[in-house]
UniProtKB/TrEMBL annotation:
<dbReference type="InterPro" id="IPR001638">
    <property type="entry name" value="Solute-binding_3/MltF_N"/>
</dbReference>
<dbReference type="Pfam" id="PF00497">
    <property type="entry name" value="SBP_bac_3"/>
</dbReference>
<keyword id="KW-0813">Transport</keyword>
<dbReference type="InterPro" id="IPR051455">
    <property type="entry name" value="Bact_solute-bind_prot3"/>
</dbReference>
<dbReference type="GO" id="GO:0006865">
    <property type="term" value="P:amino acid transport"/>
</dbReference>
<comment type="similarity">
    <text>Belongs to the bacterial solute-binding protein 3 family.</text>
</comment>
<dbReference type="GO" id="GO:0030288">
    <property type="term" value="C:outer membrane-bounded periplasmic space"/>
</dbReference>
<dbReference type="GO" id="GO:0005576">
    <property type="term" value="C:extracellular region"/>
</dbReference>
<keyword id="KW-0732">Signal</keyword>
<feature type="domain" description="Solute-binding protein family 3/N-terminal">
    <location>
        <begin position="2"/>
        <end position="232"/>
    </location>
</feature>
<protein>
    <submittedName>
        <fullName>Transporter substrate-binding domain-containing protein</fullName>
    </submittedName>
</protein>
Length: 260
C-alpha cells in the first residue's frame, strides 16, 4: 500500500536517519491501520499541491498527510471521516513583539505552502483571505511549511500562516523552537478537519478504514497525540481542541467515501 505523507512536519511526519523511515502522528496512524487491516505499507513524501493528482494517477493508494477535507478536493477524490481537527494560526520569530493580533499582519510578509487550504490561489473566495489576514498582508508561497519556517528564521518572512497544530509542531521541536513561537492571540476560526484521502471507486475500502479510524479515536488517539505533541498535551483541553467529537465524526462519516 503506497501512502502519501508530508515530510518535514514535526509531530506529524519527520524523516529519520533512514531515507524511507518516518515518525509522527500520521505515521503512527498509518501503522495502526496497517496492523488492523493487515496490509504492508510504503510511505513516501508528497508536496501539498500534488496529493490529489498522485491518488488519481495511481501513484499512491492513500494520503495520510495532514489532509484537510474541502468541497473542491472532494470533487476529485474521496475522503474518510476525520481523525483530527484544528483552527488556523500564525507563527513568528521568538523575539517578535509586533504581531499580536490579526490586524498586525497588515503590510507584513506572511508565508504559506502551495496547494494548502491557506494558499490564496486555492481559496474558493478571495474574501476568505482578506477576512482572515487583512487585505494588506503580503502573502508568499513556498513548496512546504518547512521551507516557510526556514525563511521565517532567516528573516525573509515575518510570519507563517497555517493550521495551529502544524505550527505547534515547529514551535515545540528543536531546532525550530529556539527561534519561533506561536502567537497566542491569533486564532483564525475556520476549523480544519484532517481525513485520509483515497481514490474514487474504493468505497468499500474507505468504509473499512472508517471503522478502524473510529477504533483509533477510542483506543489510541489520546496516547498517540501525547507522544508527538507533548507541548500541546500539557493543556487539559487538548482533546476538545484537536480530537473530533463523536458527533463530528459521525456527521463527516455520513458524507464520506463518495457519498453525496
Amino acid at each position: 500500500m503506497k501512502i502519501e505523507v508530508m515530510k518535514g512536519l514535526p509531530g506529524f511526519s519527520t524523516r529519520s536517519s533512514s531515507e524511507y523511515e518516518y515518525a509522527g502522528f500520521d505515521i503512527a496512524l498509518s501503522d495502526f491501520l496497517a496492523s488492523r487491516l493487515d496490509f504492508e505499507k510504503y510511505a513516501h513524501d508528497v508536496p501539498a499541491g500534488e496529493r490529489e493528482q498522485r491518488l488519481i494517477d495511481h501513484d499512491a493508494d492513500l494520503a495520510i498527510a495532514t489532509y484537510t477535507v474541502t468541497d473542491a478536493r472532494d470533487e476529485k477524490i474521496d475522503f474518510t471521516a476525520p481523525y483530527l481537527k484544528t483552527y488556523q494560526g500564525v507563527l513568528v520569530g521568538k523575539d517578535n513583539t509586533d504581531i499580536n493580533k490579526v490586524a498586525d499582519l497588515e503590510d507584513k510578509r506572511v508565508c504559506s505552502a502551495e496547494g494548502s487550504t491557506t494558499d490564496p490561489n486555492a481559496a474558493r473566495k478571495k474574501d476568505q483571505l482578506k477576512e482572515a489576514l487583512g487585505a494588506e498582508a503580503k502573502i508568499g508561497l513556498r513548496k512546504d511549511y518547512k521551507t516557510c519556517v526556514k525563511e521565517l528564521r532567516s528573516g525573509n518572512f515575518e510570519a507563517v500562516w497555517t493550521d495551529k497544530v502544524l505550527l505547534e509542531g515547529f514551535a515545540q521541536t528543536s531546532p525550530y523552537s529556539e527561534d519561533v513561537k506561536l502567537v497566542n492571540g491569533i486564532t483564525i476560526e475556520n476549523r480544519q478537519f484532517y481525513a485520509i484521502g483515497i481514490r474514487e471507486g474504493h468505497e468499500q475500502d474507505c468504509r473499512k478504514i472508517n471503522d478502524k479510524l473510529e477504533d483509533f479515536l477510542h483506543e489510541s488517539w489520546r496516547e498517540t497525540f501525547r507522544n508527538y505533541f507533548p507541548g500541546i498535551a500539557g493543556d487539559q483541553t487538548f482533546e476538545q481542541q484537536y480530537k473530533p467529537t463523536e458527533r463530528e465524526f459521525k456527521a463527516y462519516r455520513k458524507q464520506s467515501c463518495g457519498k453525496d
